[in-house]
UniProtKB/TrEMBL annotation, chains A, B:
Residues covered by the Toprim domain: 80-175
Cited SUPFAM superfamilies: Recombination protein RecR
Record keywords: DNA damage, DNA recombination, DNA repair, Metal-binding, Zinc, Zinc-finger
Name assigned to this protein: Recombination protein RecR
Classification via Pfam families: RecR_C (PF21175), RecR_HhH (PF21176), RecR_ZnF (PF02132), Toprim_4 (PF13662)
Family of the protein in this entry: Belongs to the RecR family.
Top-level taxonomy: Bacteria, Pseudomonadati, Pseudomonadota, Gammaproteobacteria, Oceanospirillales
Species: Marinobacterium aestuariivivens
Superkingdom of the source species: Bacteria
Biological role: May play a role in DNA repair. It seems to be involved in an RecBC-independent recombinational process of DNA repair. It may act with RecF and RecO.
ZnF segments: C4-type: 57-72
Key word Zinc-finger present: yes
Length: 199, 199
């Protein structure tokens, strides 16, 4: 015996959520059906509406239901700075620091020839068009410090080289509050190579 | 800055799932919107359909989209045994052991005067009607070994006392494969009090 077909269908559908295995999906399905049916309907509606209406910002490619997202629509930011990111979450993380006042460009991924992800899939052609317009003076490459993220950053740096634009990469090193003892070798090597003189 | 209103609405709606906090909800929402929109639509449909169509079995009160669930509809089980449970998941857990061939009755909760949950909310009146029909010879009380679960079991046992029906409680003790050293005192006390002679 197992659950009735509709409950099994719901359990299976919940598995699409990242981090949700068979046991969690079962617990979620039964919780919603037993204790919180209104919330289940709200969730169904929110999923439907978000899928139907959330597209991407025409300017920075982040997820947005408006043609131009709130940040790109803002006129009070520094148009000479452009931060290039892999994903909308990274954009949120940087915004939350409050330490960056420029604009963003979201690649939505990284170069990955094995998976067939090339420069055009990441909108690098659109990024270059934007840079050629001349307003941006510095491109900050904030892709992830993974092999693919580094390769993507290098590819973009190569492309930008021909233009009169500064290209920088975010610093990699020991996290603030971290203890050297517990930091991996790759990060430590980065931290040493990227040392800055104090006097 | 934060996400656009529709994405925020989706993140908030995902929080209704048990075990999902703000960070997980954010990760889920972005994962679905960035990488798996078809799955999001399937999930929305499954939620809607389950809420619309899954009700409870008229006989055992478990979640079911049919008026009578698969187990209650089966004619090949032992009608003299009735196992009383707190929730449909417990029913599934017992079914998966393959060691029980009787029928079930699901209370969908436990007695809890503080939360205003009384015998009628648990369908105990319907349970008694069923027992009075005389087919059942033994009621196995398999409510959880919590204070409320014990109280519920005792309440039902009191009610059944007047009928000519055996009432039993599932055994509590050391889990198979458990080590005494790591078992809590309450369980150990149960295990000692419920000891069975071997010869």
């Amino acid at each position: 015996m197992s659950f009735s077909p509709l409950i099994q269908q719901l359990i299976k559908a919940l598995r699409c959520l990242p981090g949700v295995g068979p046991k969690s999906a079962q617990r979620m399905a039964l919780h919603l059906l037993e204790h919180d049916r209104p919330a289940a309907l709200v969730l169904a509606g929110a999923l439907q509406e978000a899928v139907d209406r959330v597209g991407e910002c025409e300017s920075c490619r982040t997820l947005s239901e408006e043609p131009i997202c709130g940040i790109c629509a803002s006129r009070s930011r520094d148009a000479t700075l452009l931060c290039v990111l892999e994903s909308p979450v990274d954009m949120l993380a940087i915004e939350q620091t409050g330490g960056f006042g420029g604009y963003y460009f979201v690649l939505k991924g990284h170069l990955s020839p094995i998976d067939g992800v090339g420069p055009e899939d990441l909108g690098i052609d659109r990024l270059m068009e934007r840079l050629e317009r001349g307003e941006v003076k510095e491109v900050i490459l904030a892709t992830n410090p993974t092999v693919e993220g580094e390769a993507t950053a290098h590819y973009i740096a190569e492309q930008v080289r021909e233009l009169d634009i500064r290209v920088s990469r975010i610093a990699h090193g020991v996290p603030v509050g971290g203890e050297l003892e517990f930091i991996d070798g790759g990060t430590l090597a980065h931290a040493l190579a990227g040392r800055r003189s104090l006097v």
